[in-house]
Design goal:
The complex is a heterodimer of chains A (about 120) and B (about 120). Chain A is mainly β and about 120 residues long. Chain A is about 0% helix and about 50% strand. In chain A, the strands form 3 sheets. In chain A, strands 2, 5, 6, 10, 11 and 12 form a 6-stranded mixed beta sheet that branches. Classes of the chains: A mainly beta (about 120), B mainly beta (about 120). The interface of A and B includes residues 37, 46, 103 and 109 of A.
Chain lengths: ~120, ~120
């Protein structure tokens, strides 16, 4: 079974600064997808960024980028130019690439606080 | 609003009562998922549907839990004889399902409190 570990329960960053959230995972599969989801307080979870394991290039979405290290099974999220609206719980998630294996396996989350 | 919707948003019940939650996926999404999120944890997979067929159930889904998706549209999750350990946020998600890379879109959740 796959597991996802987020070792930072809480992080804080000054507004406009850069912060990196860590995630490691364990799997015996060679093809899979990794995700970062954001869950603002009392609001629904939204996808921040996605990485396909077969792609060597790290995914980027505007101020959000990942550092995907497949051999180390590491998948960190970098948020540049942090904004107050980035304050949320961030969850790292894993999904098998097998059709029919649909579930997302989540980590325990990192609560990100933005300091004005 | 074309997002995933869930009803009710909050439910307080007494131990031993039955509760039912509803999820309306995004139109034309044929995959629908249920997750449970307890305090301080990430969501945990419960079950998923492809159209009206329930294709996978987690071991977390005890025989007190049942989920349906009649006609492949909305879905209901029923918990019978609720226990205090059932207190959690129940999240629904849907995705289009044609490509494996399609994103799962989450609803706002139903927060269940069992007294």
């Amino acid at each position: 079974a796959q597991t996802v570990t987020q070792s930072q329960p809480e992080m804080s960053v000054q507004e406009a600064e850069t912060v990196t959230l860590s995630c490691t995972y364990d799997t015996s599969e060679s093809d899979y997808y990794l995700f970062w989801y954001k869950q603002p307080p009392s609001r629904q979870m939204i996808l921040v960024i996605r990485q396909e394991a077969y792609k060597q290039q790290n995914a980027t979405e505007n101020r959000f980028s990942v550092n995907f290290q497949k051999a180390a099974k590491s998948f960190s999220l970098k948020i540049s130019d942090s904004q107050l609206g980035d304050a949320a719980m961030y969850f790292c998630a894993y999904r098998s690439a097998d059709f029919g294996n649909e579930k997302l396996t989540f980590g325990t989350g990192t609560r990100l606080t933005i300091i004005p | 609003d074309t997002g995933v919707s869930q009803d009710p948003r909050h439910k307080i019940t007494k131990r031993g009562q039955n509760v039912t939650f509803r999820c309306d996926p995004i139109s034309e999404h044929n995959r629908l998922y249920w997750y449970r999120q307890t305090l301080g944890q990430g969501p945990e997979f419960l079950t998923y549907f492809q159209n009206e067929a329930q294709l996978e159930k987690s071991r977390l889904l005890s025989d007190r839990f049942s989920a349906e998706r009649p006609k492949g549209s909305f879905s209901t999750l029923e918990i019978q004889r609720t226990e205090q350990g059932d207190s959690a946020m129940y999240l629904c998600a849907s995705r289009f399902g044609l490509a494996i890379t399609d994103t799962q879109y989450f609803g706002p959740g139903t927060r269940l409190t069992v007294l």
